[in-house]
Amino acid sequence: MFEQLTQLVQQFGQDAVVKNDAVPNEQNEAVMNEASNSILDGLKNMVAEGNVSDVASLINGSTTADTSNPVVQKLKEQLTGNLGEKFGLSSDAASGVAGNLIPKVLGSLVGNAKDPNHKGFEVSDLVNAISGGAGNSGLMDAVSQYGGQFGLDQNADGKVDMSDAMAAVNKKGGIGGLLGKLFGR
């Protein structure tokens, strides 16, 4: 997942970093590496601190990755501070880089994870990376909670779990229909 994140930062970093006169050319690569690390670490910290619902809403697409999103705002603040502290960028320059990168990278990251035509990267990869690979029960619990609101609770027991997945497979539309409901397809 970190590799995909780094590729997106490199892609969107051309305008935000490389073509930005406020970022010295010799620091371009280090600034983009810091952006990748800050995004992943920031998402992990939000989940660890219990801010699972905002992260889950972003991942499942019920909120957009724009500047009004609380996840985007927090990551932007974190990256702005890191760029100022580590690279001596002015607060305006650091904020400009973060504000240009964070929404585009997160939007593309979530979009790629949800796109069935984008091979080699799944929503589960994103959830595992954010949860640090140490189990994703909190994040998956949030997805389950919101899943009930999207009609994914097939057996009406108040939770979305494996029995709902099995019930969905046996119904018209199968597991693809179940996942389509969850991820807005």
Strand content: under 5%
Outline the biggest β-sheet: none
What's the total number of strands?
A: 0
Question: Helix/strand-derived class?
Answer: mainly alpha
Bin the helical content: 55-70%
* Outline: globular
Instruction: Report, as a whole number of angstroms, the end-to-end distance.
Output: 23 Å
Number of helices: 9
Cα-atom Rg, whole angstroms?
18 Å
| String of helices and strands | HHHHHHHHH
- Which residue ranges are poorly predicted, with pLDDT under 50 across at least 5 consecutive positions? 146-150, 172-179
What is the mean pLDDT?
A: 77
Tell me what the structure shows.
The chain contains nine helices and no strands. With 185 residues, the protein is mostly helical. Helix 1 packs antiparallel against helix 5, helix 3 packs across helix 7 and helix 8 crosses helix 9. The longest helix is centred in the middle third of the chain and has 24 residues. The radius of gyration is 18 Å and the shape is globular. The two termini are 23 Å apart.
Briefly characterize the structure:
This protein is mainly alpha-helical and 185 residues long.
Task: Name a few traits of the molecule.
single chain, 185 residues, mainly alpha, 9 helices, 0% strand, globular
Topology:
Layout: H1 2-18, H2 28-48, H3 52-59, H4 70-87, H5 91-114, H6 123-130, H7 137-149, H8 162-170, H9 174-182
Helix pairs in contact: 1-2, 1-5, 2-4, 3-7, 4-5, 5-6, 8-9
